[in-house]
Amino acid sequence: MSNLTEQISKRRTFAIISHPDAGKTTLTEKLLLYGGAINLAGSVKGKKTARHAVSDWMEIEKQRGISVTSSVLQFRYDGYCINILDTPGHQDFSEDTYRTLMAADSAVMVIDASKGVENQTKKLFKVCVMRHIPIITFINKMDRDAMNPFDLLDDIENVLGINTCPMNWPLGSGKEFKGVYDRQSRQILSYTANNGQREVETEVLLLDDPDLDSKLFYGQRDALFDDIDLLDGAGNEFDLDMVRRGELTPVFFGSALTNFGVEPFLRDFLQITTPPLPREANEEAIEPDADFFSAFVFKIQANMNRAHRDRVAFMRICSGVFDKNMEVYHVQGNRRMKLSQPQQMMAQEREVVDTAYAGDIIGVFDPGVFSIGDTIVSVGQKFAFRGIPTFAPEHFSLVRQKDTMKRKQFVKGMNQIAQEGAIQIFHEPESGMEEVIVGVVGELQFDVLQYRLENEYNVEIIMTPTPYQFIRWITSDVDYKSLDLASDTKVVADFKENKLLLFRSEWSIDWALEHNRELTLQDFGTAE
Ligand code: G4P
């Protein structure tokens, strides 16, 4: 095996999704702990007051206690090089999540055992399904009183519509949580609470142990035998191909906070998931071990570190090797360049990367040339990866700056935040940014916009909500001036001067289509 092939075979790149508070951050921290990437004494409890989770960067996230932007972390474990992409849990950021999932090869879905599938999990799950990637479920907080495990599986199957296959099975929950039964080895991993330290005390118990009853809580042995019969008889069989197509989710029970079941989960996860797979570009599939470098930008973030006033483009490497001194070709910009200040995130630290391989995520300094979805390749290559679609925003506000003297900062801030994909900006066709309409997928993004303009660009804005609810890209070749539109429909343009229509109701969309036979509309924009 060549060094490149070997490096790639050891790589796993996954996103972690959950409803807020299900334990995504805690699980991420525990995984990093196993990789030795961070050293935490004691448990993460109390982090909201004492210390913030390693993947929360922005001030607003800290204030609100939610993950607004996604972050990327890398760690090593057992010879593997693992990239975790954290995703915002809040529903208003599902577009950011979608882009992050474009960079991932699989997803871990964290579910709170006392709550089952929650609203936001549904939305995020839908996004995973769009990508057909393997989804591995971690049912967390078994150390608290939990729903019946069969009900939890039913919930996942009924609400999310994916088949489940439990890989382990919990013995009790809350104070009586004794551990998990591993279905493959047919052994019980019994734990002793350890207050969140890395090394959990685990005792292996065998099903035919004559003293089993006395080692478990009352009734657990009989209940386990009944459950095993039911699972073996009526449950879905583990089918790796179905898992890899995203049609069956392996389910693990555990408790991230107390470290029950985290390491066995990680070990199995590494076996179930694949190394990076080929990626579709134009008409061809690009193999990860190709002899050229290729990557695409899935996230841009400005001012991650206020002290540096920088802007970082995150790219997912799809093939070959990245070397920090090499020259690359930016396909959409049609120019050669060196990627400057390449870095990877190791927990809280940014580290300069010298070499990275297909599957890895690197952040590079962006002088303002990259857009989401852009392709970067070795000099000599010219293909582009399929673009990342832009979702139709659902909320629209008119935005202008309070102090007209600050026009420059206003335009700069608005453009930069739009290039990051956090907001979309529209204007009247053939006019500049006099009156800007901002469209967002989730309303919280308006708050983020206001906050960031004030804090990063020193501009105060006035936002006036508009009654528009729907936006459609005009995809046919029609002159917008000749369109017959209802009085409540407005023509706008995006920054590429593509024309779009804003509507107050679905009724007006139908009206426009009926009165303009040559008009075709689309509810997402594509970057190409
Ligand atoms: P998130 O990133 O998905 O939003 O969740 P996060 O890890 O921040 O966890 C949310 C809360 O749940 C945290 O409590 C965390 O300690 C707790 N938690 C996570 N995993 C487990 C688990 O396995 N068992 C138990 N019992 N608790 C768990 P917190 O920071 O104290 O905040 P809060 O409890 O005041 O909300």
Describe the structure.
The protein is an alpha+beta fold and 528 residues long. The chain contains 14 helices and 33 strands. It has a seven-stranded mixed sheet with strand order 2-3-1-4-5-11-6, with helices on both faces. A six-stranded antiparallel sheet has the order 18-17-23-14-15-22. A four-stranded antiparallel sheet has the order 7-8-9-10, covered by helices on one side. Helix 5 runs parallel beside helix 6. Residues 39-57 and 64-68 have low confidence and may be disordered. Guanosine-5',3'-tetraphosphate (G4P) binds at residues 18, 20-26, 44-48, 89, 140-141, 143-144, 255-257.
**Roughly how many Å is the radius of gyration?**
25 Å
Approximately how much helix is present in the residues? 25-40%
Ligands present: guanosine-5',3'-tetraphosphate
Amino- and carboxy-terminal Cα gap: 37 Å
Strand content: 25-35%
Low-confidence spans: 39-57, 64-68
- Count of helical stretches: 14
Sheet with most strands: 7 strands, mixed
Key attributes of the depicted protein:
528 residues; alpha+beta; seven-stranded mixed sheet; six-stranded antiparallel sheet; 33 strands; binds guanosine-5',3'-tetraphosphate
Map the helices and strands.
Blueprint (H helix, E strand, L loop, with lengths): L2 H7 L1 E8 L5 H11 L12 H4 L8 H6 L7 E6 L2 E7 L7 H10 L2 E7 L6 H13 L3 E6 L8 H12 L2 E4 L1 E4 L7 E4 L4 E6 L8 E6 L5 H4 L4 H15 L5 H5 L3 E6 L8 H11 L6 E3 L2 E3 L7 E9 L8 E9 L1 E3 L3 E4 L4 E4 L4 E4 L2 E4 L2 E3 L3 E5 L9 E4 L11 E2 L3 E7 L5 H13 L4 E3 L9 E5 L3 H14 L3 E5 L4 E5 L15 E4 L5 E5 L2 H10 L5 E2 L1 E2 L3
Parallel strand pairs: 1-3, 1-4, 4-5, 5-11, 6-11
Antiparallel strand pairs: 2-3, 7-8, 8-9, 9-10, 12-13, 14-15, 14-23, 15-22, 16-21, 17-18, 17-23, 19-20, 24-33, 25-27, 25-28, 26-27, 29-31, 29-32, 30-31
Helix pairs in contact: 5-6, 12-13
Bound molecules: guanosine-5',3'-tetraphosphate.
The site of guanosine-5',3'-tetraphosphate has 21 residues, from helix 2 and helix 3.
